[in-house]
TrEMBL record:
InterPro entries: Acyl_CoA_acyltransferase, GNAT_dom. This is N-acetyltransferase. It comes from Marinobacter salsuginis. The keyword Membrane does not apply. Transmembrane segments: none annotated. Keywords: Transferase. It holds the Pfam family Acetyltransf_7. Residues 5-149 form the N-acetyltransferase domain. CDD domains: NAT_SF. GO terms for molecular function: acyltransferase activity, transferring groups other than amino-acyl groups.
Length: 179
């Protein structure tokens, strides 16, 4: 398994992976929705506000983890949000997701990111250190339909202290249907 963080020129491959995997797990409507989401995130987000981590097996793209900046204007810490995250269907359950995220989180930490947050299944993300977040510790940018999926972790030696004030996500994620 090889990991990389260069995604320019691979946007269509990433979108195809997202559509195929989410269609298999959640149905075609969700596949199309998340496929469109990832296309917009990859094309519309400023370079400083996005970091993408990819897993490959030979020529095959088998996993993608897309992080974008979550801005807390009243707080000095650097926060990135993981969404979406995907592993190719036939590669699922083989620890690709955990290995890709471990690589991604180490890389973000080395790059000075203080906090990683995501909105997903704690049973999976808990395996790589994400823990439930109360909305008083980290205000989500939009109302959450499933608050139990709001999870995060400190990437520094300090425990995660409350992030000050409100937050805003990148434009492509600023849609209530994703939250
Ligand atoms: C969720 C996903 C990214 C996990 O990647 P993966 O490579 O299959 O996961 P791993 O093999 O590293 O880890 C799987 C472990 O997490 C657990 N787990 C909990 N919830 C899970 C879930 N929704 N999907 C997969 N595994 C889950 C498994 O039981 C397994 O535990 P075990 O190793 O003790 O048996 C992948 O299955 C996927 O792309 N699913 C479809 C799209 C999706 O749901 N994306 C995430 C949206 S929040």
């Amino acid at each position: 398994m090889e990991f990389s963080s260069h995604f320019k020129g691979l946007e269509q491959d990433i979108k195809d992976l997202v559509i195929a995997s989410f269609t298999d797990s959640e149905g075609s409507d969700e596949g199309e929705l998340i496929g469109e989401l990832v296309r917009n995130v990859l094309s519309d987000t400023a370079p400083d506000d996005i970091q993408v981590f990819l897993a490959r097996a030979g020529d095959e793209l088998v996993g993608a983890a897309v992080f974008t900046r979550l801005t807390y204007p009243d707080d000095h810490r650097v926060v990135f949000l993981l969404s979406p995250m995907v592993v190719a269907t036939r590669w699922q359950g083989k620890a690709v997701g955990q290995r890709l995220l471990t690589h991604a989180l180490d890389s973000l930490r080395e790059g000075g990111v203080d906090v990683a947050i995501t909105y997903g299944d704690p049973a999976f993300y808990g395996k790589v250190g994400f823990k439930p977040l109360s909305q008083s510790i980290a205000r989500p940018p939009l109302p959450l339909s499933q608050p139990e999926g709001w999870i995060g972790q400190s990437l520094t030696k300090e425990p995660l202290a409350a992030l000050s004030g409100t937050s805003f996500c990148v434009a492509a994620l600023n849609d209530p249907s994703f939250w």
